[in-house]
Amino acid sequence: MQSASYDAIVVGSGISGGWAAKELTERGLRVLLLERGRNVEHIKDYVNATKAPWEYLHRGGRTVAMEEAYQVLKRDLLNEKNLAFWVDEKESPYTEVKRFDWYRGYQVGGRSLIWGRQSYRWSDFDFAANTKDGIAVDWPIRYQDLAPWYDHVEKHAGVSGSRDGLPQLPDGEFQPAMPLNCGEELFAGRLKQAFDGKRKVIIGRTANATLALEGRAPCQYRNACWLGCPYGAYFSTQSSTLPAAAKTGKLTLKPWSIVTEVLFDKNRRRASGVRVIDAVTEQSSDYQAKVVFVCASTLNSTWLLMRSATDIWPGGLGSSSGELGFNLMDHHFRCGAEGQLVGLDDKYYFGRRPNGIYIPRYRNLFGDKRGYLRGFGYQGSASREDWSRAVKELGIGAAFKDEMATPGPWKFGATAFGEMLPSHANSVGLDGAKKDKWGLPALKIDCATGENEHLMRKDMMADMAEMLERTGAKGVKTFDHGYFPGMAIHEMGTARMGHEPQTSVLNAHNQVWDAPNVFVTDGACLTSSACQNPSLTYMAITARAAAFAVDELNRRNL
Amino acid sequence: MTTQMTRPSDTDPPRPINRRDAIHCVTALLGGAAFVGGRGLLAACERASSALQEATLGEFTAEDIAFLDEIAETILPATNTPGAKAAKTGAFMALMVTDSYSATERKIFRDGMRKVDGAIRQANGVSFLQATPPQRLALLTTLDREQKRAMDSRKAAMDARDAAATIEHPAPAHYFRMMKELALLGYFTSEVGCTQALRYVESPGRFDPCIPCTPGEPAWAAHA
Questions:
Q1: Among B187, B197, B217, which residue's Cα sits nearest to residue B74?
Q2: Do B219 and A226 touch (CB under 8 A)?
Q3: Which of A198, A247, A308, B111 is buried most, with the most CB atoms less than 10 Å from its CB?
Q4: Rounded to whole angstroms, how far apart are CA atoms A292 and A261?
Q5: CB contact under 8 A, B223 and A53
Q6: pTM attached to this predicted model
Q7: Number of C-alpha atoms within 13 angstroms, CB side, residue A383?
Q8: pLDDT in tens, A307-317
Q9: Which pLDDT score is estimated for B166?
Q10: How far is Cα B166 from Cα A7, in angstroms, rounded to an integer?
Q11: pLDDT at B186
Q12: Residue A468 sits in which domain range?
């Protein structure tokens, strides 16, 4: 067994782990960054990034063999183009007590390579929500705690967007916004009139740079982000945080390193390091550090805590509160409405903008009161339909073909992303009967939406239809494509922050109450889910916790 | 687009061509696909090059592929831009049915091919391959209306069900919807379709949110 010592160990190299590595190294710590999967080198390993559609065997589609190998991914996202960025499900099984779509990316960069890039600040409507509603526990932080850290991460990540002065969606340090296209302009203008400015269309705030950053070109409007960007234009670990951390000379990155447990020193009541299995050789090694950042992704972080310090706490490190593994959340979505925009047939656009529009939350705010708690925001876009409209239309032959090769009608569609309440009933645990390839007990997930979400979904469909009708769209149709937890890939909770060790796993600085040199800063730490995409908040929380950890080390408190 | 073919080295062992290899050979010939089978397979492909003129693809014979080419060409004929046959759409359809369809869907598709041939024989006394383009167009226009009716009532039935149940158990489609969908996909994602019927720009470099559009102007092809 080999052994080595560092100032800090970061478990996981995705969005949160990359930020932890950057912040800790830049503050002078020698950091070991552990990633369970393979290395993915920036640009070089984006093997499909510039491939044309016709260069794929099945034109990007799926085969029966792929469906057999990817039983979870096939439920939604399975495709031929970026298959290499998704977990090998046979090696890493999990158990679904109820259907839960767990979409994982086990490689350096994690899911930062394939994320949706929408980046919204949360506000005090979100951080104060639990205490206002008397639900779960109060967040131990407020917007002002995170605001400077949102500034910090937005500047480095490169978030483009408009400043809109909305209290429920605070403005930030944005690069110039991408423009709305003419269909979206039309809709936005009419919506403002129809709803007196209470419902508003803004351009999506997205971690696609519109100005060059160090080592990164601005967005080239290819809209192929999910293959990896050869220009480094969108935020990923590889484009943004990893080069910054590497530049300090204090980073050691080890791929193929599965952390099996956080090592806990009973006498000092501190973690002493981590135990790692080499994913390829299956050899075990221990690494020592003064602090450990657990950033393995929401469910993997909790899974790791559950395997740690079990000789003291049978439920694992952080389980003394009785809350480790509970209060799992996601965003429920896949419902909304669409309709046709008229009068723009002589207008088109050039370039493929990797971003859409956003309609910030308006429900249960500013005097609005519904029969459910919290709210939702819409993500959508206007575009001219492409040739695929031909599948459903009647017609074959010469005129039909030539028509389908031209831009189709303008359409506007949007799906709502709704807040999911934290509930003790939504939990994860260890499945004693199932093991992964490396002998670790599989994670068992038991999660479902409840009455509040079901009530909200009615508004999520009806409101969009109403907005389209009142702005003059034709052929308005609502849709609900069906939702199961996990589908938004916004797993949150299971090791929540709180004010007290009796009711939360982490304190206001993301320290495990029972092990103050262990920080959990990814989605696991969230106390509620808001309705905005969560990744920007992981970045800000991670950067804040990293600065605090270094200060505490310097004060000799850890 | 040329396939990345290099001469096989002498050390590559000779190897017989199997069904899956044949698929990859044909797909390589479709244009574009990077060769994934390694040099041994490449050698086999090249040895089998004359056989490839009448390559089989799964359950599909060379004649089947010619038949599918004509189905696709009837749906998407050559106009002032090339048609589906020029984009080798028949071979693509056969590949997708072979690799991506379930056994149930494959059977519906195969039975559908027989139905098309039977219907044209009944109407015109000739096989589909022997029929004239107007005869083919007349038949497929009828089948298009038939599939549209069938698919609309299928959708109504699915809409009446719980959304969650529908995403877990979608019902199979009408055979001519399958053919039409595959022909459209095969054509509009081919190099011919993307670059001649549509306009393909790999890296636009900018976004113009609102530009004039004249009638008949081709749409932009997608990237990824």
A1: B187
A2: no
A3: A308
A4: 11
A5: yes
A6: 0.92
A7: 19
A8: 999 999 999 99
A9: 58
A10: 52
A11: 98
A12: 164-204+333-418+449-484
Which domain CATH number covers A514? 3.50.50.60
- Expressed in percent and rounded to 5, the helix, strand and coil fractions of chain B are 60, 5, 40
| Sequence-ordered strand ranges (E) for A83-125 | 95-96
Judge if A32 and A91 occupy the same domain. yes
pLDDT of B30 reads: 46
B160 part of contact set with chain A, CB < 8 Å: no
Measured CA distances, B20 to A27, A216, B28 (Å): 55, 42, 12
Q: Are A130 and A56 in a shared domain? A: yes
Contact list in B for residue A72 (CB cut-off 8 A) is none
Residue of B203, B214, B217 to mutate for A, most A C-beta atoms under 10 A: B203
Q: Which of A301, A265, A264, A258 is nearest to A280 (CA)?
A: A258
Q: How big is chain B, counted in residues?
A: 224
Characterize the bridge pairing of strands A511-512 and A515-520.
antiparallel
Q: What is the pLDDT of residue B163?
A: 64
Tokens, residue A135: 């639900």
CB contact under 8 Å between A408 and B219, yes or no, is yes
A281 within domain boundaries: yes
Judge whether B79 is closer than 8 Å to chain A, CB to CB.
Answer: yes
Q: Is B19 helix (H, G, I), strand (E, B) or coil?
A: helix
Q: Hey, what are B88's tokens?
A: 């080798």
**A215 within some domain:** no
| Tens-digit pLDDT profile for residues A12-23 | 999 999 999 999
Is the pLDDT at A131 greater than 60? The verdict is yes
Q: Phi, psi at residue B65, to the nearest 5°?
A: -70, -40
Beta bridge mates, A376 = A418
Residue A291, SS3 per DSSP: strand
Separation in Å, CA of A200 to nearest CA in chain B? 19
Task: Flag whether A216 is in a domain.
Answer: no
Q: Answer whether A223 sits within 8 Å of B224, measured CB to CB.
A: yes
Provide the shortest C-alpha distance from residue B216 to chain A (in Å): 6
Would you put residue B31 in left (φ > 0), alpha (ψ -120 to 50) or beta? left
C-alpha span between B75 and A322 (Å, rounded): 63
**Residue B3: CA atoms inside 13 Å, Cβ hemisphere, count?**
21
Q: pLDDT (tens digit, 9 = 90+) per residue, A252-305?
A: 999 999 999 999 999 999 999 999 999 999 999 999 999 999 999 999 999 999
Neighbours of B89 (CB within 10 A): 30
What one-character-per-residue DSSP string does A238-288 give?
IIIIHHHHHHTT-EEEESSEEEEEEEEETTTTEEEEEEEEETTT--EEEEE
Residue B45: its H or E element? helix B38-47
CB–CB of A516/A501 below 8 Å? no
Same domain for A268 and A134? yes
Distance CA A265, CA A268 (A): 6
Contact (CB, 8 A) for A340 and A411: yes
Centre a 10 Å sphere on the Cβ of residue A268 and count the other Cβ atoms it contains.
Answer: 10
Percentage of chain A exceeding pLDDT 90: 99
Look at residues A308, A307, A257 and name the one whose alpha carbon lies nearest to residue A287: A257
Count CB neighbours of A219 within 10 A.
30
Contact A11, A530 (CB under 8 A): no
In this prediction, residues A106-113 reach a mean pLDDT of 98
A405:B218 CB<8 A: yes
Residues A137 and A236 in one domain: yes
**Mean pLDDT of all residues in chain B?**
81
> Rounded CA gap, A384 and B204, in Å?
17
Comparing CA positions, the residue from A536, A390, A494, A407 lying closest to residue A100 is A494
In a shared domain, residues A444 and A558 = yes
Q: Does B155 touch chain A (CB under 8 A)?
A: no
B29 touches chain A (CB under 8 A): no
